[in-house]
Design goal:
Layout: H1 5-24, H2 46-57, H3 60-71, H4 75-101, H5 107-118, H6 129-157, H7 160-190, H8 192-204, H9 217-224, H10 230-245, H11 249-260, H12 267-274
Helix pairs in contact: 1-4, 1-7, 2-4, 2-9, 3-4, 4-7, 6-7, 6-8, 6-10, 7-8, 8-11
The protein binds fe (ii) ion (2 copies).
C-alpha cells in the first residue's frame, strides 16, 4: 500500500532531523573561532551587510508562530517547523554576537536595531502550507546563495570568523531548501496541476521576507553588497529548484496563463445559477 502523504512528510522530517543531528549541528560557542576576531579584516560594508542579515533572521518569532499555525495539524510539517525555528534562531544570534563582539556595533546600537526591527511584524506572504513550501524552497535557496557569496568574500578578506559563520549558517539554509523541495515533490505526486499552479503563483509574487519590512531593504542590499542578482536567483535558485522537483519554466508559464485567464462560465451554468 503506498504511504499516505502524512506518513511521507513524517519520514521526510525524520530523515532531515537525523542528518541535522548527526552531520550538521554546530555550536556558536565551540565552532566559531572567536579568538581570531580581528576587526581590521572586515571590509567597509561588512557591518551593514551582517546587520541586514541579522535583522532578517530576527523575525523568527513571526516566522515560527505563523508557520506553526499553518502546519500544526500535521506532525511532520509542524515538527519540522519547530526544528527549523531553533536552527534559524541561531542564525540571528551568531550574527548578533559577531556584530557586538567585534565592536562593529555597540550594545546600544544593537538594542536600537532590535527595537526598530521588531516594531514591525512579518505576516505570511502566502495562504496555504503548499504555497509556503514553494516559498520556502525559493527563499532558502536565495538565502543560501547570498551567504555563499559572503563566505567567499570573508575568505578573501582573511576574516576567518565571518567565513566560519557563513559556512555553518549557509549549510543550514541549504538543508532547509532541500526539505522544502522534497515537500514540493510529494505535493506534485498527489496534485500536479494544483502544485504547479501554486509554484508559478509564488514565483511570480516572490520577494524576500525583509523586503517591505526592513527600512530601505533594497537600498541596504545594494550598498552593502548583501543581495544576489536576478541572474543568480534565476540560474542558481529557480532553475535548479524546477529541475529537482521535475518541472520546467514552460510548464509554469502555462500555469500562470491559466491563473490570469478570466474565469469562463458557460451559458448553461449561468442560466442554472440565475434560475
Ligand atoms: Fe537563516
Ligand atoms: Fe533557513
Amino acid at each position: 500500500m503506498p504511504a499516505s502523504y502524512r506518513d511521507s512528510v513524517y519520514r521526510l522530517y525524520l530523515e532531515f532531523l537525523e542528518t541535522a543531528e548527526n552531520k550538521r549541528r554546530w555550536s556558536i560557542f565551540n565552532d566559531i573561532p572567536w579568538d581570531k576576531l580581528d576587526v581590521s579584516k572586515t571590509t567597509a560594508t561588512t557591518a551593514q551587510c551582517v546587520e541586514t542579515f541579522c535583522a532578517e533572521e530576527m523575525y523568527v518569532p513571526d516566522y515560527s508562530s505563523n508557520g506553526l499555525a499553518l502546519t500544526r495539524s500535521m506532525f511532520g510539517m509542524a515538527w519540522f517547523q519547530t526544528c527549523w525555528a531553533f536552527e534559524e534562531s541561531r542564525h540571528g544570534l551568531v550574527f548578533r554576537e559577531y556584530l557586538t563582539r567585534s565592536g562593529l556595533r555597540s550594545e546600544a546600537e544593537f538594542a536600537a536595531l532590535e527595537a526598530n526591527t521588531l516594531a514591525r511584524v512579518w505576516s505570511l506572504p502566502f495562504k496555504s502550507a503548499r504555497q509556503m513550501a514553494c516559498y520556502g524552497a525559493l527563499q532558502e535557496g536565495a538565502t543560501y546563495m547570498a551567504y555563499k557569496a559572503q563566505k567567499e568574500k570573508a575568505r578573501c578578506a582573511g576574516d576567518s570568523v565571518l567565513e566560519a559563520i557563513f559556512h555553518y549558517v549557509g549549510r543550514d539554509e541549504a538543508a532547509h531548501g532541500g526539505f522544502y523541495r522534497a515537500v514540493i515533490e510529494l505535493e506534485l505526486a498527489r496534485d500536479r496541476a494544483g502544485t504547479i499552479s501554486d509554484l508559478a503563483y509564488v514565483l511570480s509574487n516572490f520577494k524576500m521576507p525583509g523586503d517591505g519590512l526592513i527600512p530601505n531593504y533594497q537600498e541596504r542590499l545594494r550598498t552593502s553588497g548583501a543581495g544576489i542578482s536576478a541572474r543568480v536567483f534565476l540560474e542558481h535558485v529557480v532553475l535548479p529548484t524546477l529541475k529537482t522537483v521535475g518541472t520546467s519554466r514552460e510548464e509554469l508559464k502555462l500555469a500562470l496563463k491559466k491563473l490570469s485567464a478570466p474565469i469562463v462560465v458557460d451559458s448553461a451554468s449561468q442560466a442554472e445559477a440565475s434560475s
